[in-house]
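On clarity, I found the account of how folds are encoded harder to follow than it need be. For illustration, here is how one protein appears when written out as sequence plus C-alpha cells.
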Amino acid sequence: MDVSRADIAAKGFLSPEIESARLQLHAELATSIGEAGAISDRVTMKLFSADVSDYAPHEILALSFWMRCIRACQGSYLLAERGMAPEALILLRSAFEFLFFGAASLADPSVFASLAEGHGHESRKQAREMIREGTKGGHLTALQVERLRQVEEMVGVTKPALTAFDAAQLAQLGYLYATAYRGLSMMASHATLAGTDSVLEGQPDGDAKAVFGPSTSNVKFAFSLIATCLANGENCFMPLITKNG
C-alpha cells in the first residue's frame, strides 16, 4: 500500500483534492451558495448582537435551540460545498428539528417542562434497556446494574417529551415537517433504499456502479433547504433576538 498517496482514491473525503471540488462547486452554484451564505451571515450577526438579559427560562431554551439550528445549518453548508450532499442533508434534518422545538418553546412555555420530563423519561428508558441487554449479554457487573437501577428509581414515572411533529404543529411549521423533515428522514438520515442513491450510479446497461467522492448531486437542493431553514428561523426568532433593543 502506498501510504504517500493523498488522492481521493486513497483518502476519500479527507483528501486535499476536496478543496478543488469545493472551488468548482462554488463556481457552478454561485447563486445558490451565495443565497444560503448571505442569510447565514445575517442571522449570525443578529445573534451576536442580541441582549439576552432577563430572558425567561423558555426563552433561553428557545434561543439555545436557535443557536443549535444555525450551527447545524452551517455544518451542512460546509459538507455540501465539498460535494457531500447526503451528509449535509442528515445534519440539516437536525437543524429543522432544532427549529421546530425552539419555535414551539416560544409559542408555548410549557414545552420547557415537557422536555425536562422527557429527559428523565429517556434516561429511565435507557437505564432499563441497558440492564436488560447488559445482563443478558454479560456486559455489566452487579455494581453497574445496581447503579442503573438507582437511576430508574431516582427518575420515577415520567412522560415522554413532545415529538418533533408536536413541536412543528405548535410552531405552525407543520408543512416543513411534512415536506423537509420527513423527506430528509427518508432520503438521508435513515438506512433506506433511497439513502443509497448517493453512492449508486445507474449505467446504460441497467446495472448500478458504486461511486465514492464529491458529487454535485443534490448539492443545490441542500443549499436551498439551508436557506429555507434559516429564513424560517429568522422569522420565528427575530422578535426574541430584538426584544431588548
